Amino acid sequence: MKLYIGADHRGFKLKEELKPWLKTKGYEIEDCGNTKFDPADDYPDYASRVAEGVKNSSHESKGILLCGSGIGVCIVANKYAGIRCGLGIDTEHTRHGRLNDNINILALPADLLTEYQAKDMVTAFLTTDFSTEERFLRRQSKIEEIEKA
Question: Whole-angstrom Cα distance, residue 34 to residue 129?
């Protein structure tokens, strides 16, 4: 599976810690930036690149975004049709986002997480399948109809 990953200056350190770990798990990583620490960078640039990558790739690709709160990158990513970005608060919350809401991009609040917590949440994101229960499929269809409007 291909993973698109991006972070601003507040998420940069955690992104750089996640990349080699994800590679050891067999994931193909596309780093959408920033590729160097820049305290003057802006999260919309990297969130847009990750969202575009996931949107224009196969349904098997996913994305991971990091900023200080996780909220800014989540807002940007959700501007793209077909993107369902969810803010990860903890592992169970992240699992719920995949199982019930079929998130395809995980937004992480880098200021609030340790590397261990982030890895646990990313593992839940990447190993939990979307439920095939009718109610979740119905809700997914409604979201897709809204995107067409």
Answer: 29
Distance CA 70, CA 66 (A): 6
The full set of domains in the chain, from first to last, is: 2-148 (3.40.1400.10)
Helices first, then strands: H and E counts in the chain: 6, 5
The two three-digit tokens of residue 110, written as one number: 């880098």
The pair phi, psi for residue 31, each rounded to 5°, is -80, 115
Give the SS3 label for residue 70.
coil
Nearest CA to 66 out of 131, 8, 137, 125 is that of 8
Determine if residue 102 is left, alpha or beta; phi over 0 gives left, psi from -120 to 50 gives alpha, anything else beta: left
* Tens-digit pLDDT profile for residues 52-111: 999 999 778 999 999 999 999 999 999 999 999 999 999 999 999 999 999 999 999 999
The first and second tokens of residue 116, run together, are 């261990």
How far, in Å, are 90, 139, 142 from residue 7 at the CA level? Answer: 19, 30, 30
Give pTM, 2 decimals. 0.97
Total residues belonging to the chain: 149
- Which tokens belong to 109? 């609040």
